[in-house]
């Protein structure tokens, strides 16, 4: 009791300024001990916080979007967000991950569903690299899209390189010629000396959405990704945004909310998922890839990082 009384007398004799200082120190200690300060508030996903990220220029910046080709106001809203992001963070590459023209891949709609929505980006020299979705092959098996100059496809599956990053576009449709495509993928991954290898296709491999996990692709493609050190696979088909945790060295990103959305849940391997009109943005550095989910309000709602894999 004598100690409590002594503390009370000391506290009572403090000036107003002393009380304020005491209260501030005490309050800061309480916030630290209960982990409720602003600096410790949990964020939706992991994000790099070093000053290096703010000053170092990426080796490559690009975005991805899929299931876009509706010509609706929702598609235009995402396209406008992509344009605004470009103004602040210039990029010259868009991975267009299929279902480029709804509902049946009709090239007669190409102006309404591609050339007009993305006109500001196209005028700035941004290059779109597309793959075929299940809706795209409904007209002439998608061949007109493969030949369309604006999609920059050198075949139904193909590879291209941007500096330190090599991309591999797949035909993941149900009539794909896997007997030829799979050995091609193995060969191209084997001969590539790019520090970063990124694969994209239309269909999901891991998903918590309507279509769920694709066991056939998990069995067929995931071991190849692991064998050849592929850290990232990008797709659409499910109309939501989802970023997986690293699964045997590969992160799976779904960016299929480019013109509409469907419900999505969360799996034990999900890092972040949301039903939200959006696109994904990427910054590639020598030692990491930063992934961002960006909505039509221009806000970053998810951010994650893929570290470089050790040799």
Automatic annotation (TrEMBL):
One of its GO terms (molecular function) is hydrolase activity. Residues 37-52 have a biased composition (Low complexity). The keyword Nucleotide-binding does not apply. Residues 61-241 form the Calcineurin-like phosphoesterase domain. Residues 36-55 are annotated as: Disordered. Pfam families: Metallophos. The keyword Hydrolase applies. Keywords: Hydrolase, Signal. PANTHER family: TARTRATE-RESISTANT ACID PHOSPHATASE TYPE 5. This is Putative purple acid phosphatase. It comes from uncultured Coleofasciculus sp.
């Amino acid at each position: 009791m004598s100690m409590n009384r002594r503390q009370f007398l000391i506290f009572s004799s403090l000036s107003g300024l002393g009380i304020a200082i005491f209260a501030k120190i005490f309050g800061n200690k309480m916030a630290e001990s209960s982990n409720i300060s602003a600096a410790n508030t949990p964020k939706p996903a992991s994000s790099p916080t070093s000053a290096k990220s703010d000053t170092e220029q990426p080796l490559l910046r690009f975005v991805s979007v899929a299931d876009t080709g509706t010509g609706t106001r929702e598609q235009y809203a995402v396209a406008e967000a992509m344009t605004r992001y470009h103004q602040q963070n210039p990029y010259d590459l868009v991975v267009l991950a299929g279902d480029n023209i709804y509902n049946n891949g009709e090239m007669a709609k190409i102006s309404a569903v591609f050339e007009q929505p993305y006109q500001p980006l196209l005028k700035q020299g941004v290059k779109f690299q597309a793959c075929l979705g299940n809706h795209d092959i409904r007209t002439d098996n998608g061949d007109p899209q493969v030949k369309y100059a604006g999609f920059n496809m050198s075949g139904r599956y193909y590879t291209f390189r941007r500096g330190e990053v090599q991309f591999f576009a797949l035909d993941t449709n149900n009539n794909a010629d896997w007997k030829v495509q799979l050995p091609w993928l193995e060969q191209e991954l084997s001969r590539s000396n790019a520090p970063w290898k990124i694969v994209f296709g239309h269909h999901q491999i891991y998903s918590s959405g309507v279509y769920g996990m694709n066991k056939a692709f998990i069995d067929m493609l995931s071991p190849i990704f692991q064998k050849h050190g592929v850290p990232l696979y990008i797709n659409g088909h499910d109309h939501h945004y989802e970023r997986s945790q690293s699964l045997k060295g590969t992160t799976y990103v779904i960016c299929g909310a480019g013109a509409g959305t469907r419900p999505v849940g969360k799996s034990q391997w999900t890092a972040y998922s949301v039903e939200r009109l959006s696109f994904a943005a990427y910054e590639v550095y020598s030692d990491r890839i930063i992934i961002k989910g960006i909505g039509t309000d221009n806000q970053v709602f998810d951010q994650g990082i893929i570290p470089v894999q050790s040799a």
